[in-house]
Structure formats: structure tokens, C-alpha cells
């Protein structure tokens, strides 16, 4: 009888218990950032492009640019920006909602970066490339995991050096161990009182 009551109370507790309301949402959009984006950022909402006073929305992959007094959203830039090289242009990471609604702030604070060029891109970052080439894409190695013959020879040479150094260390340790063993040890005699 006691078991039945315990089982029924556990069942009732599980049945009537509400779901957990605490949820954690961590958003990292490294994989969705474009190759031309600056490196070093885990999360990006928008890029501000000071050279053309436009934005790029990472989530929707759309450019946001002014025509007259209205902001236009498009998957590519209009023809008037055909000479604009996005890879060489300076990009400012903007993580606030609807940054184009406060465009004057970005012009005042980031307008100084017009025609400013030195900025590392994601496509040039080795860690980013390794993440993108996680075995599902071509990584430039036609031999699979075999490597080329030069690297194999260098690896064998290095391995031989390590083995020689290890053997030398072991021999030295053996000598010191033998030397310690061969030294006469003093006998300790305890005096009785």
C-alpha cells in the first residue's frame, strides 16, 4: 500500500509539474558571417560600410543603403556602387537594432574610416578557414591525409631526431642512477639511551 501511494505521488508530481521556464539562448553567428567580414568577432548584427554609407545585415544577408530619403534592402548593392570593392573596404561592426535609423551617429563616429584599408578579413584568418573546411569542403590536399613526400621525409627526420634525443636522455638517466647506486651509503646506527 505504501509503495502505491509513493508511486502515485511521484506520478502526480511529474504530471502536474510545470515545464522549466529558465532557458539559455546563446547565439554565435560565426558561420553566417561573410568572408569579407573583419576577423575577431564571435557575433555580428550589422556591418557599417563608411565608404558608401551603407549597412549589411548579417542575419538576412542584405545590404541596406539610402536612395533619396528612404532606406532600401537588397541582396546586392546597386549599380552606382559597382566600383566598390567590399573586400578592401573598411567595415565597422554594429551590434544594435536598426542602426540605419540612427545613421548620423555612425557618420559622425565612423566617417573617419572612409578610404581606410588595413583590416584583416575572415577569409584570411586560419581559424575561420579551418572551421569552414571541416572535412566537408576541399582543403587543397589531393592526397587525402597522406601528405606530400617532402612533408613525410621531414617528419621522419624529425622523428629520428626525437628518438635519438630520447635515447640519449635515457642513457644519461641510467648513468646517474648507476652512479647513485654505486656510492657507498653510510650506515646509521641509533644509539640507545
From TrEMBL:
Biased amino acid composition, Polar residues: 179-193
Region of interest: Disordered: 166-193
Protein's name according to its UniProt entry: Uncharacterized protein
Lineage: Bacteria, Pseudomonadati, Bacteroidota, Chitinophagia, Chitinophagales
Amino acid at each position: 500500500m505504501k509503495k502505491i501511494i509513493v508511486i502515485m505521488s511521484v506520478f502526480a508530481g511529474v504530471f502536474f509539474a510545470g515545464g522549466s521556464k529558465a532557458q539559455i539562448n546563446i547565439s554565435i553567428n560565426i558561420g553566417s558571417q561573410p568572408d569579407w567580414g573583419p576577423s575577431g568577432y564571435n557575433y555580428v548584427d550589422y556591418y557599417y560600410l563608411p565608404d558608401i554609407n551603407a549597412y549589411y545585415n548579417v542575419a538576412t544577408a542584405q545590404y541596406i543603403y539610402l536612395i533619396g530619403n528612404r532606406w532600401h534592402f537588397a541582396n546586392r548593392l546597386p549599380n552606382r556602387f559597382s566600383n566598390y570593392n567590399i573586400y578592401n573596404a573598411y567595415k565597422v561592426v554594429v551590434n544594435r537594432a536598426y542602426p540605419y535609423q540612427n545613421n548620423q551617429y555612425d557618420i559622425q563616429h565612423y566617417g573617419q574610416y572612409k578610404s581606410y584599408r588595413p583590416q584583416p578579413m575572415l577569409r584570411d584568418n586560419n581559424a575561420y578557414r579551418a572551421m569552414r573546411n571541416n572535412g566537408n569542403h576541399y582543403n587543397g590536399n589531393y592526397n587525402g591525409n597522406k601528405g606530400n613526400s617532402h612533408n613525410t621525409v621531414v617528419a621522419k627526420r624529425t622523428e629520428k631526431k626525437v628518438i635519438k634525443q630520447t635515447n640519449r636522455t635515457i642513457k644519461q638517466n641510467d648513468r646517474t642512477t648507476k652512479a647513485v647506486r654505486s656510492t657507498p651509503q653510510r650506515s646509521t646506527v641509533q644509539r640507545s639511551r
